[in-house]
Each structure stands twice: as C-alpha cells, then as structure tokens.
Amino acid sequence: MPNQLLIRPAILKDVPEILTILNHEIKNSTVIYDYTERTLNQQTQWFYTKQEAKMPILVAEKESNILGFGSFGIYRPWEAYKFSIEHSIYVSSASRGLGIGKLLMEELIILAKLQGYHTMIAGVDADNKESYKFHEKFGFKEVGRFNEVGYKFDRWLDLIFMQLHL
C-alpha cells in the first residue's frame, strides 16, 4: 500500500532525512535547546550509539519519505537510572497535524514496556503548549519546572519535565 504511513525501525539510509528534520528544529524552534546544526557524521554516530545501546529509533515513512522520527535513551548515565528513559519525537514541519507524533509515541511506549522500563520522561519547552497537551493525552504529568535554564533566540527558556509511569 504505497500511500500508507508506516512506523518502522530506522535504518542507516534514513539518517540524512532524520538529520534534515532535526536541523530544521535546531534552526527554527525551541523544541531542542541547541544552536548548532548537526552534521551527517554526528547524526550517523548518534544512530550507531543508539543501536549499540539497544535503544530504538523509529521513523514514520510514507512514499519512501521520512516524515518524523522518535527515540528514547536512558534518562541519566548512572546505573540507578537504568529503568528511566527520556524520549524525543520530531515531525517534519510539513507533516504536523496528521497524527504522526501520536503513532510514534504509541510505539515508543509499547517498546519501553516490552523492554522493562519503569518510567518515561519528557523535557518540554514551557512555551510549547501543543507538546504539553500532546503528552498529557498519553498520561504524562508535569513533575518539575526549571525557570530560565535555556537561552535561545535572545530570550530565556523554561523547561518542564513530564513523566509517565509505564
């Protein structure tokens, strides 16, 4: 079915399209608190690091185009955090509002449960009301708010942490 949206594990050839989506957000939004666009080499290393750690990278594909991606990783790098993960979902600006983020999130939650994780964490920019509501729909609750911890586009940014017990 060529017009159907497919959620599947990412493969190496998806990395350039993942990079395009990510770099758009770095340049144009506060969904990621970074200034410098990633290089293909950096994103390829990220891909391999996720594979080595057995952490998923999912893509949403339609007609051979990557419209979004999602992943998770251990929340913090110390052993006691091994059951807590933080996720990221990015959807291309042209593909928002089509339910792609929802499909990616549903699959990430399933994978997290299957892999035995206890809690999933989201870091959400306080001005990103859509992301906040999106996470609430999945049962995430606000558990912390850090004021003025980021600085981008000549303004201070507040970060909200939301949590879902799996």
Radius of gyration in whole Å, from Cα?
16 Å
Largest sheet: 7 strands, mixed
CATH superfamily: Gcn5-related N-acetyltransferase (GNAT)
Pick out the low-confidence regions.
none
SSE-based structural type: alpha+beta
Which strand-content bin applies to the residues?
A: 25-35%
What fraction, in percent, of the residue positions are helical?
Answer: 25-40%
Spatial order of strands in the largest sheet: 1-2-3-4-5-7-6
Which second-level CATH architecture applies?
3-Layer(aba) Sandwich
The number of E-state strands comes to 7
Query: Which outline best applies?
Result: globular
CATH uppermost class? Alpha Beta
State the end-to-end distance: 33 Å
Order of helices and strands: EHHEEEHEHEE
CATH topology: Aminopeptidase
GO molecular function: phosphinothricin N-acetyltransferase activity
EC number: 2.3.1.183
Domain N-acetyltransferase: 5-166
Protein name: Phosphinothricin acetyltransferase
Any chance you could write out the topology, listing elements then pairs?
Elements: E1 6-9, H1 15-28, H2 40-52, E2 57-62, E3 65-74, E4 84-91, H3 100-114, E5 119-125, H4 129-137, E6 141-152, E7 155-165
Parallel strand pairs: 4-5
Antiparallel strand pairs: 1-2, 2-3, 3-4, 5-7, 6-7
Helix pairs in contact: 1-2
In short:
This protein is of the alpha+beta class and 166 residues long. The chain is built from 4 helices and 7 strands, in the order βααβββαβαββ.
Characterize the structure shown.
It is globular and about 40 Å long. The protein has a single domain, classed as Aminopeptidase, CATH 3.40.630.30. Strand 2 (57-62) and strand 3 form a beta hairpin. It has 166 residues and is of the alpha+beta class. The protein starts with 5 loop residues before the first strand and ends with a strand. The protein has helices at 15-28, 40-52, 100-114, 129-137; strands at residues 6-9, 57-62, 65-74, 84-91, 119-125, 141-152, 155-165. The protein has a 7-stranded mixed sheet, sandwiched between helices. Helix 1 (15-28) crosses helix 2.
